[in-house]
Amino acid sequence: MTKVSYSDAVNDALERxxxxxxxxxxxxxxxxxxxxxxxxxxxxxHGDKVxxxxxxxxxxxxxxxAPSARFALDAADESSxxxxxxxxxxxxxxxxxxxxxxxxxxxxxxxxxxxxxLLPGMLAGFTHGTIRTAxxxxxxxxxxxxxxxxxxxxxxxxxxWAARFTRLxxxxxxxxxxxxxxxxxxxxxxxxxxxxxxxxxxxxLQTLDTMPGYTEGLAQLAPGDAQWLLSEMTAExxxxxxxxxxxxxxxxxHTVTLPxxxxxxxPYLPAEQHAASVAAVWQVHLGFLLAFTRDRRGEADMVRxxxxxxxxxxxxxxxxxxxxxxxxxxKFTEACLRENLLRPDRRFAAAAFAGLQRIExxxxxxxxxxxxxxxxxxxxxxxxxxxRPV
Length: 390
Fold this sequence. Notes:
globular
């Protein structure tokens, strides 16, 4: 089979996916994972598999039509665009605004301008606004001259983030004295033997500011090098994923893929934006820990057992993720591989292996479970203050 380059695979995928809307699913609103999954697959070195994967993805679940543009947003009029944050019916307006911005300035300039404005709404689309943006940025950074398809993808990623802007309560900051592992260990989590169902998780996300430890935790993390802190987060939360086989297989995947995605963007942001970016990731992590996990009993033993086991190599994990086909598995494996290359830790291989085992490979069964979960969470987080001023 002819070797397909990364950039050719990405651009071909974007062309094939161009007509799909921002979200999909009959029962709920799940982010369009096509561009992210295809880019991650190409990054894993499987460019020759991208086209067939995209065609399978297109038919796995129906996508909603994207909201049409209605009233132009003015980037120079702060009240204009701030009032539209979190308004999904303005997604078309947001995409057109970002497209105009990208037509007038280099993508790095547009990214640095809008990243801090959108950062407080990082939960947007269950973090997929940020993650989709990062995958778009990696594809742009890989070529000397971006294609129109790549620029459109960045406009859509930023537009989706803005349209689904979702603010969690409180203001995170790196002003404490604790490292990531210490802060995670000190967070009081609810005990109980009853599994955390979608309604329970959704209610917890809606009431985070009333849950013990959340508000205090926002300022517990000590300042430090952003790249180092992101490595601490990805390794620690890979371990959390391994240790909690009682929770939904997909939501906690994002506690690794989100910081790994932010790492892709940091080189193209001013240094003064790095600390706030890490703090925003930490806030989402706190929310996910309190919403989806029960308690810490047995965590250390499960992580030790998983990392002491005979784990597949990352070459094998990569091949298995391609065979598995699920977009979350592909993105999770790619993120774990990349993070492990930066700072080797067996928790990454253990987490990727656990994802392969836990995430349903049957697209139909997986789709129904995911849609049920995300619909509940979306309903619960709708009152978290999507469009409060930044």
